[in-house]
Specification:
A 12-stranded mixed β-sheet has the order 7-8-9-10-11-1-2-3-4-5-6-12. The chain has 2 domains: 91 residues; 93 residues, no CATH class. With 211 residues, the protein is α+β, with helices and mostly antiparallel strands. A hairpin with a 4-residue loop joins strand 4 and strand 5. The protein has 2 helices and 12 strands; from the N terminus they run αββββββαββββββ. The longest helix is centred in the N-terminal third of the chain and has 35 residues.
Length: 211
């Protein structure tokens, strides 16, 4: 009798684990399928705001359209404000800096790439099964929208930090917010509405050239 009870408990645990894993696998698959729609869009604006625990706020606005890309960065900490804008038009990669009373420019200094679909997907079936086992997923509502809350999501595409919570838009599969011990990172998206004016570089003559 005792052996039957133990066996029954084991079977029940296996069933519960199977249901839990299957549910998570379905949700992760839905997230990936929805996000894939935005993966190759070449006309978009992504706004990323990082609010650190020390009061520092870093705002990044990334625009891409056709063969043009630009990132505007602003860092605020109390009264201190610094700005950086990085332009990429395939032939030049200029970085403009403003802060501490100086305006400088680095010519052809490289570019910061911002991924629209980031962290919430994986191309590996085996990894998706593994993530389905270890990830804690629940549904939450914020500002009248439905999101999936992912904890312990240790995908190789995600820069995981301890106690991290990732909120994923249930309709688009895109990251809405990431919360960890150091900061809260929120993301906003706009598609097929980028104005060409954002790619016009400042007048280089107004900046000190850094070589």
């Amino acid at each position: 009798m005792k052996k039957k009870i133990i066996l029954g408990v084991i079977i029940l645990l296996i069933l519960v684990c199977g249901i839990y894993t299957t549910r998570n696998f379905i949700i992760l698959t839905k997230i990936q399928n929805n996000a894939t729609e935005y993966k190759d869009i070449d006309n978009c604006h992504v706004k990323i705001v990082t609010s650190q625990n020390d009061g520092t706020i870093i705002t990044a606005n990334y625009y891409t359209k056709d063969n043009n890309k630009v990132v505007f960065l602003e860092r605020k900490n109390g009264e201190s404000v610094s700005k950086m804008s990085i332009y990429d038009n395939e032939t030049t990669h200029h970085t403009f800096n403003e802060g501490d009373g100086r305006k400088t420019v680095n010519l052809n200094a490289g570019f910061i790439e911002v991924q629209v679909v980031y962290g919430s997907t994986t191309e590996s079936f085996v990894e998706k099964v593994f993530l389905s086992v270890i990830t804690k997923i629940k549904t939450v509502n914020e500002n009248g929208k439905k999101y999936y809350s992912l904890r312990n999501f240790k995908s190789h595409n995600n820069l995981y930090t301890e106690n991290q919570e990732m909120l994923i838009d249930s309709e688009t599969g895109l990251i809405y917010k990431v919360i960890d011990n150091q900061a809260t990172i929120s993301r906003e998206y706009e598609f097929n509405n980028v104005d060409d004016k954002v790619f016009v570089e400042p007048n280089i003559s107004e900046y000190e050239i850094i070589k």
